[in-house]
Amino acid sequence: METMSADYEVSGEGLREAIKNGDVSAAKKLLNQGVDANYLDKRGSSLLHLAAVFNRTEIAFALMESGASLYCKNSQGETPLDCAPATLQFKMKKKMEEGGQ
């Protein structure tokens, strides 16, 4: 379910908010504006961790296409794949095999 695109700060924190809100178009726009796909928040989680936790498949794929690391670990030592629900894990692994990473 895609929500209306709001105005987000062109930063890692802005992209983090778009992910939390499930705002796919804003997330893609921020990535296109140069926001770092490997940004880490104050807790040491990457944007891909956040997309995985919130089960945001389309945003996770956009992050992967923008170079987000599937192997970076958060403060609990988990990769984004570790944080993803099983169905998203499967989709992310399949995308990796198809050349997404």
From TrEMBL:
Protein name: Ankyrin repeat domain-containing protein 2A
UniProtKB keywords: ANK repeat
Ranges: ANK repeats: 43-75
Pfam families associated with the record: Ank_2
